[in-house]
Amino acid sequence: MKLSSRVSGLRPYIPGEQPADRVYVKLNANESPYPPSPAVENELRGFRTETLRLYPDPDSRDLRKAIAGMPGMDVTPDMVFPGNGSDEVLSFIFCTFFDPSLPVIFPQHSYSFYPVYAGFYHLPVRTVPLRPDFSLDTGTMAQPGNAGVIFPNPNAPTGILLETSGLRAFLQQQTENNPGRAVVVDEAYIDFGGESALPLLREFPELIIVRTFSKSFSFAGLRLGYAVSSPENIRALETVKNSFNHFPVDRIAQRLGIAACSDAAYYRRVCAEIAATRDQFSAGLQKAGWQVLPSKANFVFARCPGRSGQEVYEAAKKEGFLLRVFGTPGTEDFVRITIGTPQDMQTLLECLEKYCAAK
Ligand code: PMP
Questions:
Q1: Residue 86 C-alpha to ligand 1 middle, in angstroms?
Q2: E-assigned strands of the chain?
Q3: pLDDT tens sequence across 78-126
Q4: Is the C-alpha dihedral spanning 279, 280, 283, 289 positive or negative?
Q5: How many CB atoms lie within 10 A of CB 57?
Q6: What are 150-160's pLDDT values in tens digits?
Q7: Residues near 210 by Cβ (< 8 Å), separated by ≥ 6?
Q8: Cis peptide before 82 (omega within 30 of 0)
Q9: Which sign does the torsion angle of CA 118, 120, 121, 122 carry?
């Protein structure tokens, strides 16, 4: 069969592995170790299967209202664009806002789906190396001549947060040098100790914030994410969405998403628990001689001196823990470890201590 020439150049995203040979503690995809709120369980139990014969609301109006109404959001529903996971929202953003006439900018080490979308939409790319301490080189990212910028905050896989003062300074420089070009801040991990860019939306019409329910809302299996930006930017995203898939968020996801939004207090507690486990685990690794980057996410990026990331990954796998290695130039020594329950992290810490001591 002849395939479209569009397909031959594609380099698809490779997600964290899901092996079936035994039961692993999965610490390789930044999933939550905790269940969604009991409000979600109640909603699912009361869900009327009969309603599935009807299409969902294509505009997810009630879900938008629920997202906009969450504590700390301070936005209107017409500033919210829900989608089938934030990956889909990101895809629409690449299509809508980055013009192929100029390169789109992202950090050299960041979410590995960005280059995939750039390839899919035939966008030229300029990647900007991180600073020696693995923080973002925002000065270089804001240089004139880009079609827009995208990065996760906190960054992935480093976990390092760009504080609001640094973010504002970057936005000022970028929008002065590249007026009207989108700045996309991917806040997939913001709820684990970061400060959201939401208050900057009023100052910078170029700002688009992307969020997911997959991590802090324990919904990786449901597929729900959203963008927040000006009503004008959201309308542009709707045009693209309605040219691709009119109904990206199904009836069940809309109902359960609304239920999740009603219990923000539960998720705040869960995120605080994960952040506390992270800090304890990081301190333990450091005590054992590891280098651990300062993370504000639900994972840590760390290296055991004298061992490659691949070696650590394999040693952990033998003990029943799945970690993630990227092996990209400059990160070969590192593993990314998702934060699980305190018990799992304690067991892993003991394994890793023993492994690295046995050198
Ligand atoms: N952004 C970043 C930085 C991520 O790490 C992920 C998770 N792989 C996503 C977006 C996508 O999340 P989802 O599609 O599950 O909402």
A1: 6
A2: 25-26, 80-83, 104-107, 125-128, 148-152, 182-186, 207-212, 225-228, 291-292, 299-303, 321-322, 334-338
A3: 999 999 999 999 999 999 999 999 999 999 999 999 999 999 999 999 9
A4: negative
A5: 14
A6: 999 999 999 99
A7: 86, 89, 90, 93, 184, 185, 186, 187, 188, 225, 226, 227, 228
A8: no
A9: positive
Neighbours of 276 (CB within 10 A): 13
> What six digits make up the tokens of 36?
């969604």
Provide the token pair at 215: 């991590």
Ligand 1-lining residues (CB < 6 angstroms): 30, 85-87, 111, 152, 156, 186, 188, 212, 214, 220, 225
The alpha carbon of 32 and the centre of ligand 1 are apart by a number of angstroms equal to 13
Token code pair at residue 281? 């685990």
Distance of CA 5 from the midpoint of ligand 1 (Å)? 28
Looking up tokens 């809309």 gives 254
To test the pocket of ligand 1, the residue of 13, 17, 86, 222 to mutate (highest count of ligand atoms within 8 Å of its CB) is 86
